[in-house]
Amino acid sequence: MIDWTTRLARRASTTPDLIGGILALAGARDLINFSGGFPDPSLFATDVVGDIARKLIENDAAVALQYSSSEGIASTREALADRLAATDGRRPADAELMVTSGGIDAITLIAKSMLDPGDVVVVEEPSYLGAVSGFMAFDPTLRGVPLDGDGLDVDALATLLRELPTPPKLVYTIPDFQNPSGRTMSVERRTALVELCRQHGILIVEDVAYSQLGFDDAPRPSLWSLGPDVVVQIGTFSKVFFPGVRLGWAVGPAAVVAQLSIAKQNSDQCAGALGQRMLEEYLRAGHLDEHLPLARALYRSRASALTGALERHFDGLATWTVPQGGFFSWLHVPGVDTMALAVVARESRVAFVPGSGFFAESRDNEHLRLSYSRISESDIEEGVVRLAAAVRSLRETS
User: Fold this and answer.
1) Strand-pair partners of 234
2) What b/e string do you get for 61-84 counting C-beta neighbours within 10 Å, with b at 16 or more?
3) Which distant-in-sequence residues (6+ apart) come within 8 Å of 55 by Cβ?
4) End-to-end C-alpha distance for the chain, whole angstroms
């Protein structure tokens, strides 16, 4: 027998399978699952989507069932540009926008297009583990900048820039309802970050996966709207349409987007045309605008249920963020190795994501992420009770 593990690329030994473990629990029904950032299936507009799909197959098969260009179907990109004009207050030029196969595809395309081995990429600490592992596959040097209640610490970033011999290639940030912390970057920080990166010639990668899922109507300018010359915004419709079609976008400087499109030719070539046309029709008919208030209300209720359960059962055991949107709360459990806690919690049929994988540079085993997006309020209460018992059990035996 040939040991194929000896033939793997060197990068394979340093790329952890963190997302695989989360996705493996996507269909689990025998446990209370706080792990994945999955949208609730009850929100999927199956009747509307089914009708759209049927009409496209009947009337538009030559486009909807065919390959598309790597940058995306022209009419779909036009609908996305209209959407960005409404949400961000700026309509991108045609050459500034492309369709991607979800957010992680955009991250991979940016890494493939921008990074040589050893190039510095700055990420928030903690940060989305898919981005951390996605960048790591291209052998950069990852540097972490801390978060606080106002998001990425721009002063800390400025200090880091003074220490580095050359500026980083990229700064990756999730300014709205960040994954995993749930925190949101203040308007002042957004302006300061754009100006700092413009001054140093650094490309900002703005991930807006959760920006449409705020629990209030407070206006928050996107980084791309503040600095279209230094920002590539990447987004996904997985959270607000449905993840089965794997669709997102990248919008930014035309020269960068052109290279992302070339990179896509050598990955999956193009996003699925049927999904693109379904999304386009969904947007143009106003269905997303009708859907978002329902989604926000559901997730707001579940976030409130989680916060209340933590207040009742985790007082003195941990501290946590109170989400104002998105899917997540971030817990600090002092003195507890959350990798070990995950094993104990699974014995009580509870799953969550330990925090260590969300750190690119620091070592931190005392945090964990809870996702409330796909759990009923009664299960949230019971899951927090079980998790608190697991923390106490682990502390008693340590």
Assistant:
1) 207, 250
2) eebbeeebbbbbbeebbbbbbebb
3) 281
4) 43
Q: Which domain holds residue 188?
A: 46-287
Give the dihedral sign, CA 232/114/263/125: negative
Q: Is the pLDDT of residue 371 over 90?
A: yes
How many domains does the structure of the chain reveal?
2
Q: Are residues 109 and 224 in the same domain?
A: yes
The residues, any chain, with a CB within 8 Å of residue 123's CB and separated by 6 or more, are: 131, 132, 135, 142, 143, 144, 145, 171, 172, 173, 360
Over residues 216-272, the pLDDT tens digits come to 877 799 999 999 999 999 999 999 999 999 999 999 999 999 999 999 999 999 999
H or E element, residue 121: strand 120-125
Residue 240 sits at φ, ψ, to 5 deg, of -120, -10
- The number of beta carbons lying within 10 Å of the beta carbon of residue 13 is 9
One-letter amino acid of 319: T
Looking at residue 23, its pLDDT comes to 46
If asked whether residues 171 and 304 sit together in one domain, one would say no
Token code pair at residue 175: 């300014």
- Indicate which CATH number applies to the domain containing 372: 3.90.1150.10
Q: Are residues 283 and 293 in the same domain?
A: no
pLDDT beyond 60 at 47: yes
Sign of CA dihedral 288, 294, 296, 298: negative
**If pLDDT is split at 50, 70 and 90, which confidence band does 9 have?**
confident
Mean pLDDT, all residues of the chain? 94
Helix axes 103-114, 129-136, angle to 10 degrees: 30
How many Cβ atoms are within 10 Å of 60's Cβ, its own excluded?
15
Whether residues 101 and 216 share a domain: the answer is yes
Residue type, 139: D
Asked if 83 and 117 sit in the same domain, the reply is: yes
pTM given for the model: 0.93
Regarding whether 214 and 332 lie in a shared domain, the answer is: no
**Angle at the Cα of 113 from the Cα atoms of 220 and 176, rounded to 5 degrees:** 15
Rounded Cα distance, 321 and 177, in Å: 10
One domain for residues 75 and 203: yes
Among 287, 312, 344, identify where a domain stops.
287
Q: Give the max Cα distance, the chain.
A: 65
Domain boundary among 253, 287, 321: 287
Among 356, 338, 309, 386, smallest CA distance to 32 is for 386
For the domain that residue 60 is a member of, what is the CATH number? 3.40.640.10
